[in-house]
Specification:
The protein is an alpha/beta fold. It has helices spanning about 20-35, 50, 55-60, 70-75, 135-145, 160-165, 180-185, 215-225, 230-245, 290-305, 305-320; strands spanning about 10-15, 40-45, 80-85, 95-100, 110-115, 130-135, 150-155, 175, 190-195, 210-215, 255-260, 265-270, 280-285. The N and C termini lie far apart (about 45 Å). The mean pLDDT is about 95. The structure holds ligand DPM.
Length: about 325
Amino acid sequence: MTVSASTRTVRIGSRKSQLALVQTYWVQEELQKHFPDITFEVETMSTQGDKILDVPLAKIGDKGLFTKELEVGMLEKKTDLAVHSLKDLPTNLPEGLMLGCVTERENPADALVVHEKFKDKQLETLPEGAVIGTSSLRRLAQLRHHYPHLEFKDVRGNLNTRLAKLDAGEYDAIILAFAGLHRLGMSDRIHQVIPPEVSLHAVGQGALGIECRAGDTDILNLLKSLEHTATAHRCYAERAFLRELEGGCQVPIGVNTQIEGEQLTLTGLVASLDGKKLVKDVVTGATAEAEQIGLELARKLREQGAQEILDAILAEIDRS
Ligand code: DPM
């Protein structure tokens, strides 16, 4: 960013997927509205996660799969901020970078999208052996727990690729985030919004996280205009929970948060891949102490065996 206020240019890093671009252009537009004298430019980059499409997500790990190249861009000062789906942003960021702001969350729920031939069905009424496409271990574990009659098959690629595979008959249904479909203008494909009793969403799901250089006060001041406080409190609680359990983004950990008055309630779950073991609990506390709530919930679930479930999954992924 150059010094003179009249010629300032701020560069925004983004992945190239359609969803990433929709999100980044939204951020660009909002910033432009708030700061008409600054020029906001978008720089697109491919991340590792965009390039490796033939390997199950859980296997390639999660250490910044969709964020690393964008982070290098900021550290090398080629860009000033990066827009992420918050759920793809690891809970521990590289030295020199920080989560600068969290935007207002969309509906964080998961959604069922079905093949045409099952348009009269819901999760519970899909036939025995119906094939559900997902590469989320979180979705897999929770849905297996509730609907043992269903089969699950890995699916990768961007949203359009996944929907095309579904329509071509490779799957009977797929599970996607409500938020992604909504942002891409494809809400009409949402067949069933999956309630939290069936599937707790991923940490940070539905919110955007904007990352910037740590202590870059100029950029942080700009980002304040996009911060949504309630969403930030919820996501800080969720991220503290995940960080404390040392779960990357590819483990069966689900959450739900609610704010009522000054109180924040965090529900969290850890499940085994076969859906047979499932530990779930709830902690309520002061919204201002969001991270403490996350830490306490992690400790509670550990006492109920969450660590053993997670260790077994990590060993299984290593072996496969
Ligand atoms: C992460 C997961 C998935 C994405 C794992 C999970 C889904 C992978 C899959 C961490 N990142 O949710 O348990 O289903 O195969 C991703 C999506 C969005 C951000 C797409 C989706 C859009 C929603 C949002 C991929 N990252 O979940 O359907 O911004 O929260």
